[in-house]
Amino acid sequence: MTKETEYAIEVERLTKRYGELLVVNDISFTVRKGEVFAFLGTNGAGKTTTVEIIETIRTPTSGKVRLLGMDVTKGKRDIVSRIGVLPQGFNSFDRITVRETIQYYSRLFRCRNSDVDGLIELVDLKEKAQEQFKNLSGGLKQRLGIAVALVNDPEVVFLDEPTTGLDPRARREVWKVLLGLKNKGKTVFLTTHYMEEAELLADTVIIIEKGKIIAMDSPSELIEGNVNYMVLTLQSVGEKVFEIVRKMGFEPVHDNHWNIKVQLEHTDDVQKILNALKEGGASFLGLDVRKPNLEEVFLKLTGKTLHEDPAGEGGGNEPARRWRKSRREHQELLS
Fold this sequence. Notes:
Elements: H1 3-6, E1 7-18, E2 21-32, E3 36-40, H2 47-54, E4 62-67, E5 70-71, H3 76-80, E6 83-86, H4 98-108, H5 116-122, H6 138-149, E7 156-160, H7 168-183, E8 187-191, H8 195-201, E9 204-209, E10 212-217, H9 219-226, E11 230-235, H10 239-247, E12 253-254, E13 260-264, H11 268-279, E14 286-290, H12 294-302, H13 318-334
Parallel strand pairs: 3-8, 3-9, 6-7, 7-8
Antiparallel strand pairs: 1-2, 1-4, 4-5, 9-10, 11-13, 11-14, 12-13
Helix pairs in contact: 4-5, 6-7, 9-12
């Protein structure tokens, strides 16, 4: 397989400046065809700008970006017909149904061969096909948004915070749809504030901070290479438990529920602590042992948590602005 056929996206030494402000600083990465690729970063890290350059919405200051083998600064008309974009906060017309929404966008983008029934089935909205948009829950609206992003049967799908604001059940329903896209051979470029989402769905994760890529690997490799410990939680404990664990040379800390958490490097340390507590006559209500996750990797590498903030790098109502601009340009190029 040649490099051109292996990669859906190739970014080489990409830089973006706004006057004196350096937003994206000489970054390079590739996205393989058919993978789920998660792009993570705090607000202002350069994430949104990078994605907009790949989507042909912005132009780079320097560097090269190729999407499906085409230069994004030269092949815009050909590129937009082969990608799909779901911006954060998808919206549509209140009084048209699920089926009518997909049909409307199919006609808008001149997609005469859109499989409307297939898209409804893919996002599991068959029972809601005749429901008006205004009556859908947030999770159902997002699933409909994914269907709209697929009306042109794109090879690469960009999903910006597809589960923000959804409850856990609705979020998992969207995850099923995203895994379905991968099974259909689509390349999925995902930006998300949910570490669990990236850890579960992504084949490759990139973390960007202050315009530079600071980590890139599979979720499991990032975790194994950056946080080699586990966390023991002892539930509803008294000071006696805390003191015994502390005297063993560990560093227990209290959480907000009168539990203590202890970082351990070796699995046999768990049994050593339990034996010491039994011998010391100290009691607790329960215990939990967890391996580190992607959230802890992100915190270690950036010193920050990944807060939700829809303002992004552009400020204001950025998701809505990106939706209007990308859809307007898409329509103009296909007309």
